[in-house]
Specification:
Strand content: under 5%
Radius of gyration: 31 Å
Structural class: mainly alpha
Strand order of the largest sheet: 1-4
Distance between the termini: 66 Å
Helix content: 40-55%
Shape: globular
Length: about 775
Amino acid sequence: MARTIIALLALLALGAAALYADEPSDVIPPTNDRRAGPDWWSLQPIQHRSLPAVRDAKWAREPIDAFILAKLESQGLAPNPQADKRTLIRRVTFDLIGLPPTPAEVDAFVNDDLPDAYAKLVDRLLDSPHYGEQWARHWLDVVRFGESEGFEHNRPRPFAWRYRDWVVAAFNEDEPYDRFVRDQIAGDALSPGDPTALIATTYFNCGSYDSLGLTKGTDAMIEVTRLDHVEDVVGNLGQTFLGLTVNCARCHDHKFDPIHQKEYYQLAAALAGVGVGQRETLAESNAAAIQERRQVIAKRLADVYLRMQPLDGSIRERLGEAARIKAGQGASDAQNRAKAAMRAASETKAIAEAVAEEAGGASDKEGKHRLEKAREAEKKSAEEASKAEAAEIAAEKALAQLLQIGPARSVSVAQVLSEMPASDRPAYDPLLVEASNLEAGEQLLAGGAAHAVVSSSPATVHVLMHGDFRRPGETVGPRGLTAVAGLPPDLELPADAPDGPRRAKLAEWITDPRNPLPARVIVNRLWHYHFGAGLVRTPNDFGFNGGHPSHPELLDYLATQLMSHGWSLKFVQRMIVMSAAYQQSSAVGPSANSDPDNRLVWRRAPMRLQAESLRDAMLFVSGALNPQMGGPGYHDHEHHFKDDDDFYEPKDVSGPEFDRRSIYRTWNRAGVDPFLETMDCPDPSVATPARSVTTTPLQALSMLNGVLSTRLSAAFAKRVEREAGSDAGKQVETGYRLSFGRLPLAAERGPARKFVSEFGLQQLCLILFNSSEFLYVD
């Protein structure tokens, strides 16, 4: 029996060896039915595509539409008619800024009969600071952004918010996508002295980090953990920017894509000097240029503060004066405590000296005991005095900072909003967005700690046979991928090149206009978020196991347009949302019989709000949203430290400090917000190029009975009462307009009024939150 088992194990071992046997390292065959070759579609140069001929040329609004319509006509299908204007404004507003339009915005658009009404709407949304918040959230999904390390220790990353703010600003400023990529890979090397470029390299510290596994255990365990971390970094870089699962070649040549195992280690060598930690982002080497940028922001801020003053000035003065008095009293109290502690220390020291003199050279036990106790008391008293003195210094410093900033300006936004009349908020909130957006930019330029890349001397990288660190093969240096047609893989680096130049050359190779992957991958991501599915339905995988593009010519056309217009993402997005394809209704028509998955884009399918947009919309409609941008995030958890590990326990929070947009939540890899998690918000420990959308009983219970829904439906009811008065009919109209951007239908009015009279306005507001029309965007 034992021999039989040994024989079976031997056969299994031989099978595993055959499975992972090295393929020929110099030749990968052309594409066949089992794997991709060097001729695979995504690796070929981008082609300049001419617009195809179509029969219904009047339907097209953008060149995009010709590609869509040509494919539909070839299959005997027709596109849907255009959606109505109320549907369009709700759709494009949620898509571009992640918030619903106000009733006033809906009315203005519906009543604007000029031919450029929709174009003006799109331009306004693209220029909104909220645009960056919405699209930064999508990007943070892809790079698995988290504000703690994960694993056992799960240490917090208190300065990770700077990267989040940098991403928001990059989208708002329409930073060219090729520069956006280069900054994240090598911003510190390509733009030394620019604090924002250094903050961008936090990209490498977005993922999980096993600090315990990298420091504890045997040497072998530590090395395996280190190599796993390298795979995570290389894997995310390959999937995020190139759409290739390069990490699958760690143990052997890629089984499905034309990527050699050696090439995985060459990419790893390009990143061999990347370390994890904190760096200061002070811009001493480029101080003049940074100072000039800060002065521009300061002038603009002064103007905004002046416009805000009539609305928040009296509140800030009153609260600021109270803070000044409290801080002054605190400094005075600290000074008194310090003086008392120093007097006590002086007295204790005198007693100790007297006891020592009395004890003299006594050798008796009692004398030694008295002397020991006196010395202990002296030491303890001195420590207390030192602590009191430190507290005094801290209190005086806080008071000085308060006076320097000005008591009024030191008052937090949350404090101001908690005191401000609701009637002032419509005028104040846009100014708050403008001011906080500028303040966020100033914070990035001002310097400070960031979890940016920490350079070290690159370690020697070997190809590991079967991925086993105990079987090192040949030494390799930094290099790109051979299979990318038209772009040499050589990074032209000496063997001993330091970390900065390695990353800089890799960044330049990735964003080289001859590299067809980055442009194709990012325009496909844009299409994915606007239509609910990409032209390639696997946004992170353009390899053999990924999907084929439904419209390959359109994908290349979009990529070409991106590069020829300065890598402007906003330019491509404007084309997408201005197209007739995007403006189609979501109705199910005859085309559904031939194309039930809408691969040919004969309609714009309904999309459920993502978890964060749903929470933000509930806050916005209820009037509770604090629109302050940037800065450290809010904490909806309790942070505990026990047995050298960090724990995060979710807690319910409310009030202006916490009622900010969900992107400003502190995204720890534990203590997940129960509401967001229930509504399919992804785990930040893994990259999420496409979110799951589920429908579960728990979601319905959370929306009907959850703490958040209950609290915000009460706030919603109070807002409706303020705006509509006590008349039930007007309350119903106001609730519908705020929720859906429309008046209730004739069949809805009577039942809604009856419902209010029987169950109350808050319950109607709760029902509106739970309606499909609120949860889904047509």
